[in-house]
Amino acid sequence: MDKISKKNWKVRLHDIIYEADTPAGKLFDVILLITILASIILVMLESIRSFDARFHRFLNISEWIITILFTIEYIARIVTVKKPLKYITSFYGIIDLLSTIPKYISLILGGIHALAALRALRLLRIFRILKLARYMGASNLLISALKASRAKILVFLFAVLILAIIFGTLMYLVEGEQSGFTSIPVSIYWCIVTLTTVGFGDITPVTPLGQIIAAFIMILGYGIIAVPTGIVSAEYSTRNRLGAPEKAPSIHLNTLSCANCMSEKHQDGAEFCSNCGHTLNT
Amino acid sequence: MDKISKKNWKVRLHDIIYEADTPAGKLFDVILLITILASIILVMLESIRSFDARFHRFLNISEWIITILFTIEYIARIVTVKKPLKYITSFYGIIDLLSTIPKYISLILGGIHALAALRALRLLRIFRILKLARYMGASNLLISALKASRAKILVFLFAVLILAIIFGTLMYLVEGEQSGFTSIPVSIYWCIVTLTTVGFGDITPVTPLGQIIAAFIMILGYGIIAVPTGIVSAEYSTRNRLGAPEKAPSIHLNTLSCANCMSEKHQDGAEFCSNCGHTLNT
Amino acid sequence: MDKISKKNWKVRLHDIIYEADTPAGKLFDVILLITILASIILVMLESIRSFDARFHRFLNISEWIITILFTIEYIARIVTVKKPLKYITSFYGIIDLLSTIPKYISLILGGIHALAALRALRLLRIFRILKLARYMGASNLLISALKASRAKILVFLFAVLILAIIFGTLMYLVEGEQSGFTSIPVSIYWCIVTLTTVGFGDITPVTPLGQIIAAFIMILGYGIIAVPTGIVSAEYSTRNRLGAPEKAPSIHLNTLSCANCMSEKHQDGAEFCSNCGHTLNT
Amino acid sequence: MDKISKKNWKVRLHDIIYEADTPAGKLFDVILLITILASIILVMLESIRSFDARFHRFLNISEWIITILFTIEYIARIVTVKKPLKYITSFYGIIDLLSTIPKYISLILGGIHALAALRALRLLRIFRILKLARYMGASNLLISALKASRAKILVFLFAVLILAIIFGTLMYLVEGEQSGFTSIPVSIYWCIVTLTTVGFGDITPVTPLGQIIAAFIMILGYGIIAVPTGIVSAEYSTRNRLGAPEKAPSIHLNTLSCANCMSEKHQDGAEFCSNCGHTLNT
């Protein structure tokens, strides 16, 4: 009885907002997911001039609806969490705030375009809902392979950058300004465009010597792409072979998050938070 | 004798149309393959304005010949199959119908261009003829490696899409409309063009800050291509090493398809359909 | 004495032309290599209009010198080989002839441009001289990995082609002629340009729907490049692990070619041709 | 006492300049790193016409400050090393000199642009400071994998070049000058642009036959990128598996360089130079 009485509205609301195991929690997550996606699509549509001109009123109202929904959610999250300050200063807390305030600020300052960037941060909120439980096993393996290759990939990217600076300077001297290589930084930009095999074609070499160097840069870029691929491939392959113990826990990942410290990824069947010791059986 | 008397014209026609083991069946398959290829080439040639203007009559007659041939084949397939409804509602049944009707509809509605798309579906018919028996072993291994990597590749593509949205929004704010980044969706399109190292060059950054971000996106795209490659490579490598039991059955694949339920890929020497138990020894 | 008397001028010339083990043979190979490279550079320079205008006389004389040198070599090869007809009808025999005759034909027909293509075949002659003895071990492993992956790579390329045809037709219907997608073949060409991440930018989608499909094609192309890479990587990796027995013979490859049947790649220390049994100790 | 008295100013200066183990040595390295980066950024900024016009005076003074700092460092390095001539003729000695003299020469000859290239060599100086101790293990493995694949990658690049020459000549004959394929060398350049999937779009085929050949080249380029990737991947994978003995020494790499012969990469705890036997305990 003591346990049940503790289940007051705050705890119940906490369960709905932070968990995905109860029907109410799942419903909340689905609604939130749709709201977030709608809010992102709104930002995009607003940027299309012709669309904004025709449906300005509709976009404005929709934006206000989403802002109010986000505000309610933000307040609810603060109220139900045991340590509100910890939530507010957490990564997701800041993202949640930045997703909400732009519209309020626009009320004071008028529609400043730069705020669209802040609203784009809403996208990051998707990660919290999905919790990516299903693909966690897949991405865990991937992330650990990338982490193990980090140092080598950094060395590689550093080498690419130095190559770009050297060849960029060379191309600036060879081609000169009349071909579009107007300065060394622009030449380096062109060199990265070429080395990565993107090849916009906004700047192209026109002198024979420039074209020979460009051909060399392309073949270089074509060849060295093998390096990061080889690294990740080998690291991933090693991990995949030893994979059994790493894969095992990922299957039984539960979606509970601690009401006290908000840490997640507790083991299935765990009754206490592995981070702060607070009970998970709310 | 009882067995032989069952071999009436329907069964014989079924053998010719659905099997590739008898001389008549092989001949039918070769003629059908040529007809399909001819029909696809016809659709292509018709789309070339100058060609259509000069050879309109020839193209029209050819299209009618192919349509009539496809109609005969479609009816023959329905007649010879034990469960016609099952064939009509099957994937290949729908493709076969959609490959045939556009010309009849054009008779009623006049030459609507959108029907060319339906006729392009004829291409999918090739798969049924080739049955790809020879390369089945090769592609089986490939497909199973791709299937095993599916979840990881989805996580990767999702990550690419989120990167494109974030950087697309950023580039829209940095470059603005005068550089061609007219809206966030267009910026995201540009970002995908750059991340995948395609680099059309129809939209290119012109501000120094935009070029720095673009360079970063390119190097990112150049680096993360290693991820899907590494995944498929490792999965395929694992499969290849354990490959013996998987490869074995693929060698002895026969080309019989059940007259009752149309299921294929029966084991060599099988006398009954593995799906419905119907005899295969027609 | 009997053996020495057999070493008449024909045999000695054969040794010089076909072998690389004697000082004279090496010298011949070096001179031939230089001549071939010079002949290729000549063809290139001739195609540069401004260069040809200024140095026409020089280019013409040089071309004649090379043609005469090639003629002498061609006659010498026929004379010294035991079975001239076999040489003349062999791959290298035809290449040697086609490298020589264009100039003679131009004497009769005047300078027809199409003959430049034939002269470009001279490039293939390089392979015979280099014999690639040093890198044979490296390329053997590579070629055997590619051969083993052949069927899978063909399935992959076939899939790419079908994707290109389907999406090409789709883009033709979506974008239409005003965007540069003037016909289905042109759309398919554009689709291959995009799928392979080349991205010329001569044709680009302008409608929102076209750009969405294009983005999808790009991500597809970016993703499926992993497939051939994974295949070759895994095949090569397997071969590399088992590699010892395969690598061993490649180290002791000699450069002798049989005077009778012209087969090469005899084992080191072999005294008789492994193909026809003719003695190699000329 | 005998040992301590030997520690005169020259030895102490040598420690500061050449080592990174003492606080003074670390401080020197950090200052030098900042100076080098500043000098590179200066060269870049100078090349931007609008920036140079506005801040010419500032750039000139900064360049003189850096030149003087580099001069002092260069003299200090000569003075403190036991064999100055060996330093001056060493790779880093020449780089150090070439990084310093351009400004002095410009004093005599005026600001010649070509000297910017020499100053770009300053970038190479970074390697000496970083000593890349931390990532050495990572890059060692990488470099050894690349070295092992060298012969195979050369064969591959040679094949790419020959393909480019053959298809370049073919495209020149097919497309002709009106499409931008003005000469065989330009066609080869285009062919490399296409084969490496860079695709600038400055030159594009316009004839149907040219587009078919171009499509073939693209698919070829898209497919053969698998080859270097597969090689590096397999080599790296093998090395990674056997990796333990190779990785081990890289962890305990010290940063001492011999005062006598300037060789580096001594084992941790080594008291004598592994190259010349000179004591390392300065």
UniProtKB/TrEMBL annotation, chains A, B, C, D:
It comes from the Bacteria. This is Ion transporter. Residues 26-240 form the Ion transport domain. The keyword Transferase does not apply. It holds the Pfam family Ion_trans. InterPro entries: Ion_trans_dom, VG_K_chnl, Volt_channel_dom_sf. The chain crosses the membrane at residues 27-45, 57-76, 104-124, 153-174, 212-232. The keyword Lyase does not apply. Keywords: Ion channel, Ion transport, Membrane, Potassium, Potassium channel, Potassium transport, Transmembrane, Transmembrane helix, Transport, Voltage-gated channel. It is a multi-pass membrane protein.
